[in-house]
Specification:
It is built from five helices and two strands. The chain is mainly α and 233 residues long. It folds into two domains: 146 residues, Orthogonal Bundle (Helix Hairpins), CATH 1.10.287.1490; 59 residues, no CATH class. It has a two-stranded parallel ribbon with strand order 1-2. Helix 1 runs antiparallel to helix 3 and helix 2 runs antiparallel to helix 3. The radius of gyration is 41 Å and the shape is rod-shaped. The two termini are 13 Å apart. Bound molecules: zinc ion. Zinc ion (ZN) binds next to loops.
Length: 233
């Protein structure tokens, strides 16, 4: 059996392990991206919320203005009974009439502000419903990603067990070479193309290298990148 064949088996498992590890690393980022999808709906909701707050504020301000004038009228009427002259009495009446007029104005403003509340409230309900729908969709994706993470971890455990078995069948020296190289170059074991080119770094190998590879004379590294060369049967 060639030295390279068990290494290719190991490399296939390592490839799977790398992909699974990458997926495990990427899942938190994918979850963040899902959360980002809620941003738009949240912003709309916030905007409508503050519109509602402002509209409500206008209603309340009008209410305060009205109340202040009613209190004034009440105080004027209380004092009015104590007045001595008719002239003073008339002045009070004019003041009261002026305040009544102002109350009418503020009441009209308050009614208009209340009318403004209606469409804002309905837009708020829409924005809340939209966020709720979006949240449900995102929650669905998030739980899919959580499930995916569980199964990826399981697959990784399986692959690691397979790897532990596979290394037993690799020549120890070849394994050492492979392990050293795999942190720097990937894949480690590559095809030597028919034109003598290393499939890893694309350097043309001298003919002697091609011969050694064809004869399967142990480990034949690429002269440039050090990858282990083999011929596809
Ligand atoms: Zn090479």
């Amino acid at each position: 059996m060639s030295v390279v064949q068990p290494l290719l088996g190991l490399q296939e498992i390592d490839n799977r392990i790398r992909e699974l590890q990458r997926e495990i690393r990427d899942i938190p980022q994918r979850k963040d991206q899902e959360q980002e999808r809620l941003k738009g709906a949240r912003e709309v909701l916030e905007r409508v919320h503050s519109e509602l707050k402002n509209a409500q504020l206008r209603v309340n301000e009008a209410e305060l203005e009205i109340q202040a004038r009613r209190d004034k009228i009440l105080a004027l009427k209380k004092n009015q009974v104590l007045l001595k002259t008719n002239k003073e009495f008339q002045i009070y009446n004019l003041e009261i009439a002026k305040l009544d007029g102002e109350i009418d104005n503020h009441e009209a403003r308050q009614l208009a502000a209340m009318d403004d509340l209606i469409p804002v409230k309905s837009r708020l309900a829409e924005a809340e419903a939209k966020l709720k729908d979006d949240q449900e969709i995102v929650d669905g994706y998030l739980s899919e990603l959580d499930e995916r993470l569980v199964s990826v971890n399981e697959a990784l455990a399986v692959a690691e067990a397979e790897r532990a078995e596979a290394v037993k069948h690799v020549d120890p020296k070849a394994l050492l070479y492979y392990e050293r190289l795999r942190t720097k170059r990937w894949p480690v074991v590559v095809n030597l193309q028919h034109d003598g080119v290393c499939n890893g770094c694309h350097l043309v190998q001298p003919p002697s290298v091609g011969q050694m590879v064809r004869r399967k004379q142990g480990l034949v590294p690429c002269q440039m990148c050090g990858r282990i060369l083999y011929n596809v049967e």
